[in-house]
Amino acid sequence: MDAGYYNGTYKVPSQRYRDWMAFIQKFVADFAGELVEMAHAAGKKAAMFQGDHWIGTEPFLPCYQDIGIDINVGAVEDGVALRRLTDSAGDQIKEARFYPYFFPDVFREGNNPVTESMANWVKIRRAMLHKPLDRIGYGGYLSLANKFPHFIDHVTQISDEFGTYRQHSAGTESAKIGGKVAVLNAWGLARSWLQNQAQDQRFYVPPRPDVMEFVGNNPLECLAGLPFDVEFISFEDILENGIADDIKVIINTGDANSAWSGGEYWGNPKVVTALREFVGKGGGLLGICDPSAHLQNGRFFQLGDVFGLEKETSLTMGRVAQPVKLDGDHYLASCLTGEEDFGNLSYVYSQAHDMSVIAAQGQHLAMTAREYGNGRSVYLGNLPFTMTNARLLQHILLWLSKSENEQYAWVSDAAWVDACYYPDSSKATVVNYTPEVQQVTVTDLSGEKQTITLEGYEWRWLDA
Amino acid sequence: MDAGYYNGTYKVPSQRYRDWMAFIQKFVADFAGELVEMAHAAGKKAAMFQGDHWIGTEPFLPCYQDIGIDINVGAVEDGVALRRLTDSAGDQIKEARFYPYFFPDVFREGNNPVTESMANWVKIRRAMLHKPLDRIGYGGYLSLANKFPHFIDHVTQISDEFGTYRQHSAGTESAKIGGKVAVLNAWGLARSWLQNQAQDQRFYVPPRPDVMEFVGNNPLECLAGLPFDVEFISFEDILENGIADDIKVIINTGDANSAWSGGEYWGNPKVVTALREFVGKGGGLLGICDPSAHLQNGRFFQLGDVFGLEKETSLTMGRVAQPVKLDGDHYLASCLTGEEDFGNLSYVYSQAHDMSVIAAQGQHLAMTAREYGNGRSVYLGNLPFTMTNARLLQHILLWLSKSENEQYAWVSDAAWVDACYYPDSSKATVVNYTPEVQQVTVTDLSGEKQTITLEGYEWRWLDA
User: Which end of chain B has fewer CB within 10 Å, C or N?
Assistant: First the structure.
């Protein structure tokens, strides 16, 4: 408990809490290390299952490597969960354990287990493109799965696709575009690729609310399948070491008060100054939902000067509302398809005449962009996961890193098709998210444009 | 300025600010009193125009009466502004100054000044029913108005309607229904009938934002035309004197942080306890928008136990969302027409199994009701002014004061028609808000049902 609340991961962790975590971490790593040594002494390998919790064995923290684990097994239902597995450091074998489990809740008469599996698989494989995955697996009662022969066929197909992926990607990474993207929150590395859902997602899905339906409906899921180099940094990182030179874009996404937005950290002048300097010197800043939100010094968005925005918290009600005018000439306006989903918008208003409104619903700003010093900023009201939103995020991240005019090979600009290539194996791939036929035009390594038509759900490999 | 913000009326006033107001008030009242004495000595009357501001001459505060003013003139554009004029204490003549002023912004070629005037008049006259108004007037350049003969005809018609109103109402009040309703905020009496708009209203009106369009689009405008006895009380009143026995329903409406919701006052256990006791002993509590909102002790809605609700501020994200199930059998559900407008809904969720959801949009609760001890509570996401919303508010206030089964004479249950009667003059009246023909069925004093059909905008008087 903390301050009357369950001390969930969505809460900004206190120093005391972080100290306690470090203490537990040390104890568990030491003890687990002894167990792994026994396994190794017996000529066996040791695997860690990262499932319901991993108190004391945080896979993203350095001391995890001291344990000596050989295999990380992660329960994976979407792209973010996959990246949580594949992006952690260390030379462990990475094995994804897929849903649905062979349990009677899903494997029952009248239900089709392929439905859930396919919905997961199309998310997972787009995230698989960008960081190597070594193995896949399932769990549960084989006797239950055996009653659903078309599910066995489906698993055969997944296994075949996975085999082809292993062969062509050769355990290497896709080529990345733009600059390095850092997701900034109160946890940083320790909670990399953890679903940091905002209240908008929690209230978003009608009509049958189910906690599993909310998971993944957020900007990180959009990001998980895009060809960007991504890392997670914390406010403490910035306070201790500043912002690394190779970071080109910083994302701050989450609700006010939450660990994801950062809460009281935004009251620290060193944090605010570091971010202003980062953007002023040419960096890109993407704020989603309540970026830099903390009520202090007559402001709520502490970086409102960078975004050219403020959020109405009923303390500036005297202002006269300005007409919302879309900037249709802005580069990012040309990236919109009209199918974007900005969720349930907030009470954000313009505070700068040189801020461009890219999308709005009435008085509610959905997407804005602005130049600040030598850098750029973009605000999004929200960005639930849809393929259209994911493609928009790609355009935004390229614009923020001033790479929007770069010519990248094997990059998709079609909403429903992902593409990338592997420099180390000279292979390229295109994958159709949907059951319908889709088309995508990409530029290959020789600079030639190729238009590729894919069958429903097709995943094709080509020479790059 | 206060804490980096313009110290608007929407901000919770500090003790220092209130002390300063009292100091100015004393000075202005003394000085104005000298001027009034000079006017009286010259055989004249003195009028105070309550227009753009009235620093030091707060008409709702007791020392206003020390000035000796004979006539209060108030600029009136809607029902709330009218009640701000008519509800202040004292035997001053109450004169409404109507919009539009005869200025070139409205009285220009191609514009029809009757449009604005009629939109105001239909709001004003429904509020005029319940507290007596003595005089009406206009301001500006007569030469401009003279260029619009149909506007002169329109003013003639308003004047005739006003004359008839004066004759039949005889300067008396309408009969009231239910119990006394108190609006609780940080200002109380001093800011009675001040438009306490919430951020939802400010962001609500598309497509051309104009500060005048926002004014009045709130729950108080609904209340202004209903036959309830209304007073405004402050948290300081409760702390000093408790809650008066004749108050049957308390309304707390406004955004978190604002003077209207109450901000830090809700952190005071004496306030919270007084409200719980009030409801527990049989009172009614209506919360709109962010009632009792203040982040403290692991709660945001400090009276969430009374409403059976909490607002998600990203500190309780771990909860599992429950399916929203409408309680179609609830008395208040039978009061809905489907035309209600609950504005842009918030992130409020159920925290009590015995709480009834009356209206919702997906996961967003629009209207809920609950029994608490011997009393009742209702929550509304928002209540912009519409006639349908006003009628719903009437039903809610009757239910909260346990008067929903009382038989009241000359009460309207039709959305577009207001009705009331005057015990002192034995007259009743019905008034059509719309340009279309409308019908209303009312019970007269003998208990007979009467169905009355009104022409567009018709205001009819009958024997009660």
Answer: N
